[in-house]
Design brief:
By secondary structure, the chain is α/β, with parallel strands linked by helices. The chain has one domain: Rossmann fold (3-Layer(aba) Sandwich). It is built from nine helices and eight strands. It has an eight-stranded mixed sheet, sandwiched between helices.
């Protein structure tokens, strides 16, 4: 079975906040890396035009992915247009069938905005339909027969949309790769500059670091990323947990 991991999130920089440390560790362990943001980030500026913003933010996401040797898959829709609908689902399923990930890293199903939640929901269905020959994709892509494990990262702010805490099941120590995580997030210069100007010097990086510290406190690590494993039904055997198997030396499992 190929060792491939795909990280999919809503917007440019979402992967860097939630998933990039885990991605870097998997890359060091020999996994082939793929990154995708479903939306193009066109709402992420108050000074650039729509076209300028898309070009800038897509370029930043591509550079961040390439900095860790990951293949980058371009966005499909505008911000706020990540809707659970057939056309987008058909395109995402085609990409899943092409990449054939063993590990699929997604955003939390509970998060502060609909784009994040819909990205998670769409990708779960796209992955679920990967092996159904009669499910038509866009473009047409043959069904695949592979075991896959889906993991959900932590929501921004570590709470759901009703302010209830979301706790990780699996806590991965990313302390050793935090500089790489910082470097990836720093590729998103347009967002860093905007936040630095409005909220203080290096607030962008500090926000990410603070989130990793909070997650790390659950596992006794300085910095960590948290994950919850999706139900195995439709994806593989109940015991199939390649993320835990690969990164066992970096993982603490939360008790209770």
């Amino acid at each position: 079975m190929s060792k491939t991991v795909m990280a999919v999130a809503a917007h440019p920089d979402d992967i860097e906040f939630v998933m990039s440390g885990t991605l870097i560790l998997l890359g060091q362990a020999g996994y082939e890396l793929h990154c995708m943001t479903i939306a193009n980030g066109h709402c992420g500026s108050t000074t650039m035009t729509r076209e300028e913003t898309i070009a800038t933010r897509t370029g930043e996401a591509r550079r961040a992915a390439e900095s860790i040797g990951a293949a980058y898959h371009p966005p499909l829709v505008d911000d706020i247009d990540i809707l659970y609908e057939k056309g987008l689902l058909m395109k995402l399923c085609a990409i899943v069938r092409e990449v054939k990930p063993r590990i699929l890293l997604l955003q939390s199903p509970q998060d502060y905005m609909e784009d994040h939640q819909n990205s998670s929901r769409l990708m779960v269905t796209a992955a679920f339909c990967r092996n159904m020959p009669n499910y038509q994709t866009d473009p047409p892509t043959p069904a695949i027969d592979n075991e896959m494990c889906v993991y959900h990262g932590m929501p921004m702010g570590l709470t759901d949309q009703l302010r209830n805490p979301v706790l990780p099941e699996m806590i991965i120590d990313v302390s050793s790769v935090m500089q790489g995580k910082r470097d990836m997030l720093s590729c998103h210069r347009s967002q860093k500059e905007w936040l630095d100007e409005s909220q203080g010097h290096d607030n962008y990086i500090h926000l990410m670091e603070d989130m990793c510290r909070q997650v790390g406190s659950h596992g006794g690590f300085e910095y960590a990323e948290g994950w919850r494993r999706h139900l195995h039904l439709g994806f593989g055997p109940e015991c199939f947990d390649p993320l835990s198997d690969c990164l066992a030396n970096y993982i603490s499992m939360r008790k209770g």
